[in-house]
Amino acid sequence: MRSELLDLILGLLPDTHPRPELRAFYAMLRDYPQRGGKGLRSELLLLSAQAHGARQGTPQWQSALWLGAVIELFQNWVLIHDDIEDDSEERRGKPALHRLHGLPLALNAGDALHAYMWAAVEQAGVPGAYREVLTMIHRTAEGQHLDLDWVARREWDLSEADYLEMVQLKTAYYTVIIPLRLGALAAGCLPSDAFTPAGEALGSAFQIRDDVLNLLEDAGNYGKEIGGDLLEGKRTLIVLHWLNAAPAKQRAVFLEQMALSRADKDPARMAEVLNWLRQSGSLDHAQDYAAQQGERGLALLREALSGAADPAAVANMLGLARSYVTREA
Amino acid sequence: MRSELLDLILGLLPDTHPRPELRAFYAMLRDYPQRGGKGLRSELLLLSAQAHGARQGTPQWQSALWLGAVIELFQNWVLIHDDIEDDSEERRGKPALHRLHGLPLALNAGDALHAYMWAAVEQAGVPGAYREVLTMIHRTAEGQHLDLDWVARREWDLSEADYLEMVQLKTAYYTVIIPLRLGALAAGCLPSDAFTPAGEALGSAFQIRDDVLNLLEDAGNYGKEIGGDLLEGKRTLIVLHWLNAAPAKQRAVFLEQMALSRADKDPARMAEVLNWLRQSGSLDHAQDYAAQQGERGLALLREALSGAADPAAVANMLGLARSYVTREA
Q1: What family does the database annotate (chains A, B) (predicted)?
Q2: In this predicted structure, what is the pLDDT of residue B324?
């Protein structure tokens, strides 16, 4: 993440208080933002602002920076709550917040960080940004509900189309569509309608790449535990594709393990499942699909921005969007 | 709650979706608001708006109604998350949301409802309301952190002053101070500075009355489980006052039980503790303190509103504020 952005975020969050308990609370709010997120989404937003004509050092650029802070604060509070919902162990190479402080305190800290995100929206002062942030939260929460509901009901009778609908809600809005739109608004432009289909394609590609990385043995730079999605019973394109053609015995072992809680899953059995998945060709299928969606999204985006104010920024933006599908971490 | 308010809330929340899972999600968002909360806080806000000169049927009144919806939506998303944090069993006579749908889905629904609260802020269109809502969330989350942190660390070495600082943050802002201020803003008036000390006194009185009701055997209309606070290890003025003078043996039994999780607590021992508390005079002490704080708050409020536009509304408002301390449910 750009250092100016982190400075804005840390300047917005409270720091000190006469009561030691509340100093500790403030430190919890500052924890995830300081763990060095890559800041891909705010970078996309800033490149979109630049492509639409916002120049560094102008009030428009300052607004774009604040909206970048909004996107990063959004991701941070959502991650605190996601980590609780999935009972994840790690986040960005350290224990998840609720593993450090217990669930109740971490949940409450996520709520407080959510409110500071709205304080950043106010700082940006960009007409229309408010509605975009509401849409981002609504769609992300809907996608998250689908994901969690399938886990809770142990629903595996799902098509690849079901998965794509889920990730288009859960990932595409906050990762691509809304950053692109907020960048345009910060520059005083009307966002292109094509940002939605472009973002759905690129967002799916991004999430599928994330799912692939989560299963690769050598994803050393990746900030989450390898195979964690599988232990959490997450639906991925890889698993759904494999399950569709898996031998009956493998399928039965998989569904048996998926009916158990994370703690009750048999590590040896789960290692077998991981091997079957890796040997099945489903990782390649998912990666190919992600690449194809990525190209589709890039083409749509290139066309939507063909008359943009700053062609060099458009090129940088397309390069960043391309890295969504090829990234190693 | 006034029916116009519930109509605004239910009209704002989404209702239908092609996917059954998302229809179920929307039903979760609509659940707590439909359980018939008393709407004390929105009522206080509306009476404050009226006292400051907002007349029914005017655009100012419509803004006040939207801000009433904000306060109710705030309470509802906070209650969903509180019930998770405390692992409460019931809310308004029915199972808590996370007991119906599991923790992950309920947590996510609370986040979505939080965002719909911000949509209601936008609908109100009242300058300055945004800042008030931010302050309300920040102070409430800080108070909630103190409360939860003491539970998590099994901290019982606390004074009555510690308790009061906690409830002034946790309860006073969203129950009194911010409703009073938002009512004034809806009517186009600058809120009186005296609303803060008045609200701190009345808010403490309200929370202490809540704590007292939670321990009374015959609180039949009360929407939470009797003695639930004790099982959850909540710090209350009653417990802190009793603990200060309790015989060493009673104190030891209490601390021993408090070191256990809710499920591990011995029901017979806890019934003994409840009896000691009820016989100690600490309930009377707390009730007397609440009454005294209530009178102080009322006097401050009466003075602050001595020149108000609508004296009849001020009288209704003072009557409502008085009921905070005498309520039976």
Answers
A1: Belongs to the FPP/GGPP synthase family.
A2: 84
